[in-house]
Amino acid sequence: MLLSLALVLLVSLAASRAMKDAETLQSEMFPPTHPNCTQSLTDYLLLRQELQLSKMAAAEEERTQLTRENLQVLTQVRDTLSQVSEALTQRNQASGRSAAETRRTCDPPFSSVGDSCLLLNLRLKEDWASARQFCVGKGADLARFSDAAGYAAILDYINKINSQDEMTDVWVGGTDEALEGTWLWVTGELMPQGPPFWGSSDGYKAAPDGGSSQNCAGLYKRDNYYLHDFRCNGAAAPLCQK
User: Fold this and answer.
1) 159-168: long-range contacts, CB 8 A cutoff, minimum separation 24
2) Alpha-carbon distance 142 to 242, whole Å?
């Protein structure tokens, strides 16, 4: 009887100890929730949100600064373009005034054409040398031009003078007598070559094409006053220039 009671007591003690050991193990494996755990998580999330907002604010400030810089560059470009435009306008105005100021006043029978004075005598038809002497007697020389604008001005003048459309060729101050194939103005300057200055007699072979037999330059009426090489003893009207 006493033995049975002792055995029951031992079993009870063992069971009680086992329960305490189990409670200890559970507390070690699953520690109790900290009372401030929820607050710590909220603070973390708020801090993260604050950092994100700070980054966004910094990026927005950077974009704003870049926009300001671009605006400054565009303003400088606008101001520069305005200055260039104003300078070009002033230069064009000055050029226009200069052109008007350089237009010569010509005494009759000469007419003002560009920056020179021209005289075309359609009634006088002589050889090249005599035509040149006629111009020299007027204080001028046979006409010349250096570019398409000067050539066009001369053509316009001739067509106005030759209003009756007479089939009269016109002498100008060009020759290759000194060196065959090297066409020079009476001033010693090289004459312009090729189109739109020199014409063609047959529509294919471009003037000058007369070789050593045609050494004086004139404007050929049948070819709309394009340049051609003529025989120097031929007859044409002198176009004088001074």
Assistant:
1) 159/225, 161/120, 161/122, 162/120, 162/122, 166/122, 166/221, 167/221, 167/222, 168/122, 168/125, 168/221, 168/236, 168/237
2) 9
What is the residue type of 28?
E
221, 235 contact by CB (below 8 A):
no
Strand partners, 198: 227
Q: How does pLDDT run across 119-157, given as a tens digit for each residue?
A: 999 999 999 999 999 999 999 999 999 999 999 999 999
Instruction: Give domain status of residue 34, yes or no.
Output: no
184 & 234 share domain? yes
Task: Identify the domain boundary among 102, 120, 135.
Answer: 102
Cα–Cα dist 210/87, whole Å: 51
Both structure tokens of 231: 């025989």
What is the Cα–Cα distance from 122 to 235, expressed in whole angstroms? 11
C-alpha span between 72 and 37 (Å, rounded): 53
Q: Kindly state whether residues 194 and 146 are assigned to the same domain.
A: yes
- Do 115 and 229 sit in the same domain of this protein? yes
Do 86 and 122 reside in the same domain of the chain?
no
pTM exceeds 0.70, yes or no:
no
* Rounded distance between C-alpha atoms, residue 188 and residue 237, angstroms: 22
| Site of tokens 């507390």 | 27
Tens of pLDDT, residues 95-104: 555 544 456 6
State the total domains in the chain: 2
Which residues have a Cβ under 8 Å from the Cβ of 153 and sit 6 or more positions away?
113, 114, 145
Q: What are 111-123's pLDDT values in tens digits? A: 999 889 999 999 9
